[in-house]
Amino acid sequence: MAVERPRPPAAGPADARPLVDAFLAAARGGAMGRLRALLREDVVVTTDGGGLARAGRHPVHGARKAAWLFTKVFERFYADAEISHARYNHAPAIVLRSPARVVVYVFDLDAAGRISRVYALVTPDKLRHLRNGAPSAG
User: Fold this and answer.
1) CA-to-CA distance for 42 and 125, rounded, in angstroms?
2) I want to staple 27 with a disulfide (CB 3.0 to 4.6 A). Which of 40, 70, 81, 136 is the partner?
3) Torsion sign over Cα 74, 67, 131, 128
4) Which DSSP symbol is given to 50?
5) At 85, is the pLDDT very low, low, confident or very high (cuts 50, 70, 90)?
6) Phi, psi of 118 (to 5 degrees)
7) Is the CB of residue 10 less than 8 Å from the CB of residue 109?
8) Could you tell me what percent of the chain has a pLDDT over 90?
């Protein structure tokens, strides 16, 4: 019989905010080295477009690929986006609002405080409630 190890508790809002701010600064500034330092080497980035929005079809694995992805996406799509901190299913998240779309990035953190998984939610139907400036993702 396999014993399930308890998952480390998700970082609370006060704990996660500096890490999320550092992620934003590195992604917006194109600082791939700083971004990689915030990510676990085995980080996984998953996007959900729900078939209604342009999103990656396959998960991105690894800190190098994820850092490259985030710097390019932020440069191209979110240079002037309005960004707010949120919680999404009790996990730290950010809401990015640009004229073209709303996106929510949800972060899973490991016990050492590094980003282990990023879930990018871009499905318009799931984010409709955020279009009008609602402050939280849920």
Assistant:
1) 30
2) 70
3) positive
4) T
5) very high
6) -130, 130
7) yes
8) 43
Distance of CA 81 to the CA centre of its chain: 14
For 110, other C-beta atoms within 10 Å of its C-beta total: 15
Alpha carbons 98 and 14: distance in angstroms, whole number = 26
Give the residue carrying structure tokens 């779309």.
101
**Residues whose CB is less than 8 angstroms from the CB of residue 12 and which lie 6 or more positions away in sequence, other chains included:** none
At residue 121, the pLDDT reads 84
Read off the pLDDT of each residue in 35-45 and give the average, rounded to a whole number: 96
* CATH number for the domain running over 13-130: 3.10.450.50
* β-sheet bridge partners, residue 94: 85, 105
In this structure, what DSSP letter does residue 21 have?
Answer: H
- DSSP H or E segment with residue 124: helix 124-127
Radius of gyration for the chain, computed over Cα atoms and rounded to the nearest angstrom: 15
DSSP state of 59: -
Separation CA 106–CA 48 (nearest Å): 11
Q: Is the pLDDT of residue 48 over 50?
A: yes
Q: Where are the domains of the chain?
A: 13-130
The model's pTM: 0.77
Residues in the chain: 138
